[in-house]
Amino acid sequence: MATPPLIDRRRLLLGLAPAAAAVLTGVTSCTRDTRNPSAHSPTFFSAAEWAFVNAAVARLIPAEGAGPGGIDAGVPEFIDRQMELPYGHGAYFYLKGPFLNDVPATLGYQLRYTPREIYRMGILAANAAVQKTHGKQFADLSATDQDLFAQMMERNEVQFSPVPAPVFFAQLLANTKEGYFADPLYGGNRGMTAWKWIGFPGARADFTDWLDQAGRAYPYGPVAISGARS
């Protein structure tokens, strides 16, 4: 039996934006982004880490199919910029003990590491594991092998230390989704491309007239915090 895809992209994105279901008809398909990784020059990630982040984002939200891909939407830039902000330094995390490695997901995050540390140690462990089994870095794997390895991280089928593989995967996935739909002010959702795809009005001051018009696509396009329009 063929291995099911790690993430059903349509289900992933629509799960975050239920209103999108009404505006998917007629969405143009995208071809896979074959350009180099994001042109953004990272301030936190090293070259090897940056290659990993770009490769991972390209598989979590690929450019194949309906809607923009994560690379085109600027998601890697969003993640890099977040690492230099209070969020990346753990300002919004409770980082006092006790720390527990094996607890139900319902109890939330229980480790001592900031997002910066999770990425730094997680990418190092991921590349080491891939190097051991494939003789290359994660970014150099085929798309199929990248998907399979990401699936192994998610399922805790590969052992990382000190950050567990599922913790690293969850951090990466959460930040990828955030960067895809965040206001362009933060580096992702470049050109409001994700908002345009799902028909989200963005930071418009008033769109209450459309709240009760289920099934109708919002016709005016999004507005960013900066005031930029589609």
Which secondary structure elements does this structure contain, and how are they paired or packed?
Blueprint: H1 9-16, E1 29-30, H2 47-60, E2 65-66, H3 75-83, H4 115-134, H5 143-154, H6 165-181, H7 193-198
Antiparallel strand pairs: 1-2
Structure, briefly:
With 230 residues, the chain is mostly helical.
What does this structure look like?
With 230 residues, the protein is an all-alpha fold. It has one domain (15-210). 37% of the residues lie in helices and 2% in strands. It contains seven helices and two strands; from the N terminus they run αβαβααααα. The protein has helices spanning 9-16, 47-60, 75-83, 115-134, 143-154, 165-181, 193-198; strands at residues 29-30, 65-66. It has a two-stranded antiparallel sheet. Helix 2 crosses helix 5 (143-154), helix 3 (75-83) crosses helix 6 and helix 5 (143-154) packs across helix 6 (165-181).
Task: Based on the model shown, name its key terms.
single chain, 230 residues, mainly alpha, two-stranded antiparallel sheet, 7 helices, 37% helix, 2% strand, globular
N- and C-termini, Cα separation: 44 Å
Write out the strand line-up for the largest beta sheet, numbering strands in chain order.
1-2
Number of helices: 7
Structural class computed from helices and strand pairing:
mainly alpha
Which range best describes the helical content: under 10%, 10-25%, 25-40%, 40-55%, 55-70% or over 70%?
25-40%
- The parts where pLDDT drops under 50 for at least 5 residues are 1-7, 13-36
Please outline the major beta sheet: 2 strands, antiparallel
Global morphology? globular
Count of individual beta strands: 2
| Overall mean confidence score, pLDDT | 82
How much beta, percentage-wise? under 5%
What is the count of distinct domains? 1
What is Rg?
18 Å
Give, in order, the helices and strands. Answer: HEHEHHHHH
